[in-house]
Amino acid sequence: MSVLVLVLAVCAACCLGFGFVLQQNAAQRAPLGDFLSPRLLLDLVRVPRWLAGMGLMVAGLVLGALALGGGELTLVEPLLATNLLFALALSRIQTRQPLGRQGWAGLALLAGGVTAFILAGEPRGGSAVTDPLRHWLIVGVMLGLALLLTLCAARLRLTWGPTLLAVAAGLLYGVQDALTRVSGRRFSAGGFAELLTGWQPYAVVVLGVTGLVLVQSAFETAPLRRSLPALTAAQPLAGIACGVGFLGDRLHTDAGALAWQAGGLAAVVAGIVLLGLHPAMPQGTGESGRERALERS
């Protein structure tokens, strides 16, 4: 594993984690009528705290793209999932809550799970799958599931809506990471001329904006603990599926390695849930009042 890829991915996770906290701090005060509307971004762009969060998020995306340019998607995605550690660190400063058993257990599970998956799988590159049917099938399943979850979230926004939106955004971001990797390969092969003649970079932008609307809508309607864990868990799983499915990433497939990989991913998800539900995570202000307002809308 390249040390540069490791450093880039962890720095990207740091920027993303800090950015998510600042974005949620601002989004929870946005007008409720902007739920699942691009108008939400227009309202938030006037909030300095949200702009700071977006700046960190953009920095994280750039660093993540550089990491994807030098490492396999199946390697970078688990490292990006550690953004929740940095989100919790900033939230602890805001709420002054100690880590406690839950925090340390979540930290150990997340870090240990990422380590176990990488060491057991030893992600490495290979030849990308040239079958377009397989390519579009995997992407289509991810996008279709994201659409279904979004439709359900629109009907259940007082209960499971924020979580469903976060999962949908995570699926979109996982596909976006895969297409970022493809775009990087095109750029390496033929420069900007080769890059701009493909559909992938434009899809990256569309997926990014769509995912941003979903995430901010989730941040707007519920505390961070009801959205960020789902987002953080869904993105690497979708990215790994794309990496193995059509980007040609290879993992060890003997029984022992597969068991460690499955256990590692399960530990990652469990750690994400524990950290996301930690009392240090922002609970929002005036949540009950917002819920009453939503009920009337």
TrEMBL record:
Keyword Membrane: yes
UniProt keyword list: Membrane, Transmembrane, Transmembrane helix
Membrane-traversing stretches: 50-69, 103-121, 133-151, 158-176, 196-215, 227-246, 258-277
Highest taxon listed in the record's lineage: Bacteria
Keyword check for Transmembrane helix: yes
PANTHER family: CONSERVED INTEGRAL MEMBRANE ALANINE VALINE AND LEUCINE RICH PROTEIN-RELATED
Protein name as it appears in the record: DMT family transporter
Species in which this protein is naturally found: Streptomyces hyderabadensis
